[in-house]
């Protein structure tokens, strides 16, 4: 409810992709990947908390350092609860691991990174990628050139970190790469 209230209160219509719907999807994928990895309740709390807060920083800036602002918002919220410092540190690490290029270290960080980029291996990639570019153009107030080329480069260097997502999503990502290559020919 707290994160939904943030998105409602500080609504930014230019957030066509990094909005509450995206956050809900990341949370759903975080649960899915976490359950597959049989996380205990403490680790599940860390991953799901990171998923809820990971893009809240977009509500308060241009997006360049949104992860740091997201951490700040998460820490302010959790200050009202008896949370162990190690738990807050783990949630912080998970949120910061989503900063591109992603460099997750722990399983929990790998799960949140995969949850955040899950769509790259699905049929929703085309429509969501379009929203990413529209959002960036709106934010930067300019038309961005070479979108298919830049997206292809991103997909080619991207990787899923958990074996579950590798198995489930790599073929779909390859299909999306092939579609982009066909667009460029």
TrEMBL record:
Domain of life: Bacteria
SUPFAM superfamilies, sorted: HD-domain/PDEase-like
Coiled coil: none
Pfam families: HD
Record-annotated HD domain positions: 20-119
Name under which the protein is recorded: HD domain-containing protein
Species of provenance: Niastella vici
């Amino acid at each position: 409810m707290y994160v939904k209230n943030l998105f409602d209160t500080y609504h930014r219509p230019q957030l066509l992709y990094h909005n509450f719907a995206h956050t809900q999807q990341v949370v759903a994928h975080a649960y899915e990947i976490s359950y597959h990895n049989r996380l205990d309740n403490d680790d599940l709390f860390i991953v799901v908390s990171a998923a809820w807060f990971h893009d809240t920083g977009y509500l308060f800036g241009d997006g360049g350092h949104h992860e740091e602002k997201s951490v700040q918002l998460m820490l302010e919220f959790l200050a009202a609860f008896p949370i162990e410092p190690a738990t807050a540190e783990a949630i912080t690490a998970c949120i910061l691991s989503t900063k591109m290029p992603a460099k997750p270290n722990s399983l929990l960080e790998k799960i949140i990174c995969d949850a955040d980029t899950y769509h790259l291996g699905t049929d929703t990639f085309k429509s969501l990628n379009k929203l990413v570019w529209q959002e960036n153009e709106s934010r930067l107030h300019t038309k961005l050139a070479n979108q298919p080329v830049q997206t292809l480069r991103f997909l080619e260097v991207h990787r899923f970190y958990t074996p579950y997502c590798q198995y489930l999503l790599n073929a779909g990502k390859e299909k999306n790469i092939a579609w982009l290559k066909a667009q460029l020919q």
